[in-house]
Design a protein that fits this description.
Blueprint (H helix, E strand, L loop, with lengths): L1 E5 L13 H11 L4 E5 L9 E3 L3 H12 L2 H8 L1 H21 L4 E5 L14 E5 L1 H5 L6 H9 L4 E5 L5 H8 L4 E2 L9 H4 L8 E6 L4 H4 L2 H5 L7 E6 L12 E3 L5 H11 L2 E4 L9 H8 L4 E4 L2 H4 L9 E3 L2 H12 L1 H18 L3 H19 L1
Parallel strand pairs: 1-2, 1-4, 2-3, 4-5, 5-6, 6-7, 8-9, 8-11, 9-10, 11-12, 12-13
Helix pairs in contact: 1-16, 3-4, 12-15
């Protein structure tokens, strides 16, 4: 089985946080297929993965990733985003037309728009950012046109997206939610929270991703209850002095230093989330999570059972106090880990789900 995987995000090196889940995905899928070709920004390739980009594509994709990607540009610089989107579609159209494969595994809906140039079966993943792009006028029409001449599975990484995708594309493609896995090492972390209460937030620093954190947290965090924030600054945001900002991080630092000692993870995002990977990793590590009331969060968190869903400053303060109790922290974290182990699994289990979908697509074509 020869699989072509497409992504516009990929880690440049071992310490790069961008597109880390694509590298993890590629590692596991490459173990289970005859050949995996990867069209993605330059970076260290996993064993048995073959680079499919030209030097020109590498340089262009690197520049796109440096600017935050298509979805970020469309939100912050619409004209620039539209120009880069058009250029991306042109490059992908040429690539699809000249590259043979048994399956096209295309990450994100916008990257599937040029597949009209052939009839290769396609599996198309959907995250929160490209799901939101369905609101752009003409996007649904263009996507439907792309799907018409091939077997296709649209695979959102969370089931809450399935009804809308079925409404738009269910007559042309199977809608099959396939959750991303998590690195198996998160399940092995043994937590010993610090004597100092240390909450962590891991996010790109934008107003949408931070959500209500800065407005709700002003009277709640001090020297006795620390808030450590990790992630790149992507908008001009002034952080208050009670926020300890560390800049971008990477999984090794989180696994070895921060996840074991942290009290829990906070994500009060109001951004269009699919199913945030860091949320799954924190839960797999046995950490309580306090999250905003988004479908992406409700999809995995049951309030006061394996985490907390909050909608107000008072509820946020109460969740902090509750999760900080020793008799509550460990059971909530244990329930979180059990949920991820049972319903999400590691990347090898995710690869099995994808390979099963590939085989179904090949059977439909034959």
């Amino acid at each position: 089985m020869r699989v072509l995987m497409v992504s516009t995000s990929y880690p440049a090196d071992e310490l790069d946080w961008r597109g880390r889940f694509i590298a993890d995905m590629a590692v596991s899928i490459a173990k289970k297929v005859d050949q995996l070709l990867l069209w993605a920004p330059p970076g260290k390739l996993p064993f048995h993965v073959t680079r499919a980009t030209s030097k020109e594509d590498n340089a262009w994709l690197e520049a796109l990733q440096t600017q935050g990607g298509i979805a970020h540009l469309m939100r912050t610089r619409p004209l620039k985003g539209a120009a880069m989107a058009a250029a991306l579609l042109g490059r992908l159209s040429h690539f699809y037309r000249h590259t043979e494969a048994d399956i096209q595994h295309i990450n994100w809906l916008q990257n599937a728009l040029p597949i009209r140039s052939n009839d290769t079966p396609a599996l198309i993943t959907v995250l929160g950012s490209d799901y939101q792009m369905l609101e752009i006028p003409g996007m649904v029409f263009l996507m439907r046109r792309a799907l018409k001449q091939r077997p296709a599975i649209i695979a959102p990484n969370a089931s809450w997206m399935a009804p809308t995708l079925t409404q738009h594309f269910g007559d042309l493609a199977e809608i099959r939610p396939i959750p991303f896995g998590v690195d198996a090492r998160w399940f092995t972390i043994r937590r010993k929270p610090s004597s100092t209460i240390k909450w962590i937030a891991i996010t790109r620093l934008t107003r949408g991703k931070l959500g209500d954190l800065l407005s709700w947290g002003g009277s709640l965090f001090d020297k006795g209850r620390e808030l450590h924030v990790f992630g790149p600054m992507q908008e001009d945001i002034t952080l208050p002095n009670w926020v300890i900002w560390h800049g971008p991080t990477h999984p090794d630092a989180l696994a070895s230093e921060w996840f074991p000692q942290a009290t829990g993870l906070i994500t009060l995002s109001r951004h269009s989330e699919g199913r945030p990977q860091v949320l799954l990793e924190a839960m797999a590590a046995g950490m309580p999570v306090i999250a905003s009331n988004l479908p992406a969060h409700r999809d995995v968190i049951t309030h006061q059972q394996n985490g907390y869903i909050v909608e107000s400053p008072l509820a946020f303060a109460e969740a902090l106090r509750n999760a900080e109790k020793s008799e509550t922290n460990q059971p909530i974290g244990s329930n979180a880990r059990s949920f991820i182990r049972e319903h999400i699994g590691d990347w090898d289990q995710c690869a099995d789900r994808y390979v099963a979908a590939y085989r179904d697509l090949i059977a439909k074509k034959s």
